[in-house]
Design brief:
Structural class: mainly alpha
Low-confidence stretches: none
Distance between the termini: 24 Å
Helix content: 40-55%
Strand content: under 5%
């Protein structure tokens, strides 16, 4: 029987940016800076290595959303150029920041849940 504590839902932990084990302690110090450990359950976050995964997924998702929305706005309303600069110049970085935070937290939670780690050739 598995006595290890059950992790929280990956989507819940990603949306709230909480600890992947207890779901209560905050995951980030600032917007994207990871804490050393969970304040609530003490889970050490040294195992986390998301690499470029969140950024790559974010680029693809954000590019699809912003390009689609910009084309829709252009062909539906035909606004002047300054409206596009205002909408996409302010909107894109804000959406990117929120999306990157969510994706980073999601990949951290999935990494914890699936016990993902560096591959090894033999058991040590």
């Amino acid at each position: 029987m598995d006595t290890a504590p059950k992790s929280v839902s990956p989507v819940y932990a990603a949306i709230t940016a909480r600890c992947p084990r207890c779901g209560k302690g905050p995951l980030f110090k600032n917007v994207l800076e990871l804490r050393d450990a969970c304040n609530h359950c003490g889970l050490n976050y040294r195992f986390i290595d998301t690499g470029d995964g969140p950024a790559v997924f974010g680029i693809f998702i954000l590019g699809f959303l912003v390009c689609g929305a910009a084309l829709y706005v252009e062909f539906t309303f035909e606004p002047p150029t300054w409206v596009h600069f205002l909408l996409w110049g302010i909107g894109t970085p804000l959406i990117a920041l929120g999306l990157l935070r969510f994706l980073k937290a999601l990949l951290i939670t999935l990494q914890y849940r699936n016990r993902a780690e560096e591959g090894r050739l033999a058991d040590e």
